[in-house]
Amino acid sequence: MQNYIEVEFFHDVLCAWCYAISPRVRKLASEFPIKVVHRAFALAPTPESIEQIFGSKENGKKEILSHWRAANQNDDEHRINADLMEKREFDYPYSLPGLIACKAAEVIGGQDAHWDIFDRIQKAHLTECLNIADFEVLLLCAKDVGLDLKKWIDAFTDRSTLELLIQDLQKAEDYAITGVPTLVASGKHRLVGAQKYDVLKKWIQDVIKQEGIRI
C-alpha cells in the first residue's frame, strides 16, 4: 500500500490562474505526503486558436488580459503584468510550444524538471511578457532552470514527446476536465480553480483521511 497521494496537476503555460496556484501546490507538496504529476492542458493549442475562440486576435488579447488582471488579484505576490503585455506587439502566444517544452523537460528530468520549467515559462509569459511561442524564449527558460540543453532540444523535437503531450490531453478528456488549474487526487478527488492555500490544505487533508493514508 502506497504511503502517499498522487495529485495530478492539470495546467497550461498560458494560464494566469495556474501561475497563481503553482507556488501553493509546491507548498502543499512540501507539507503533505503527495506526489505531484504534471498534466498538460491546451487552452489555445494552435496559432489560430485565439482568433477562433474570440473572433479576432485583438479581441482575444483584450479579453485574456482582463483575466490576467483578475488573476493578479488572486496571486499572492501579484506577479502578473497585464499592462506590459498590453504593449507587446507580437501575437498572443498559443499553448503547444510551451507545453512541449515542459514535456521535453519531463522526459529528461522527470516531474521536478517539468515543474521547474513550467514555472519559468509562466514567469516569462506573465511577468516578463515575452513571446513563449518563440523557441529562443523557451530555450532561455530551459537554460535558466539548468537543463541539459542538447538533451532537452532532442526531446523537444522528438515525436514521442508530442505523443506524451497527447496522452495528457486525453487524460483531461477522460476526466471531463474543461478548464485549468484542476487538481485530481487518487484519480477521483477533484479541486478546480486557483484556490487559496487554506482551501488546498483542507482538501488534501480530507483526501488523505478518505484514502486512509497515515501521516
What does this entry look like structurally?
- The chain has 215 residues and is of the alpha+beta class.
- The chain has nine helices and four strands, in the order E-H-E-H-H-H-H-H-H-H-E-E-H.
- Helix 5 packs across helix 7 (149-156).
- The longest helix has 31 residues, at 96-126.
- The radius of gyration is 17 Å and the shape is globular.
- The mean pLDDT is 97.
What's this entry about, in short?
The protein contains nine helices and four strands, in the order E-H-E-H-H-H-H-H-H-H-E-E-H. With 215 residues, it is of the alpha+beta class.
Quick tags:
alpha+beta, 10% strand, globular, 215 residues, four-stranded mixed β-sheet
What do the pLDDT scores average to? 97
Number of strands: 4
- Strands of the largest sheet, in order across it? 2-1-3-4
- The low-confidence parts are none
Strand count, sense and barrel status of the largest sheet are: 4 strands, mixed
Please report the distance between the alpha carbons of the first and last residues. 14 Å
Radius of gyration: 17 Å
Number of helices: 9
Q: What structural class do helix, strand and pairing data support? A: alpha+beta
Task: Give the amount of beta strand, in percent.
Answer: 5-15%
Helix/strand order, N-terminal first: EHEHHHHHHHEEH
Dominant shape: globular
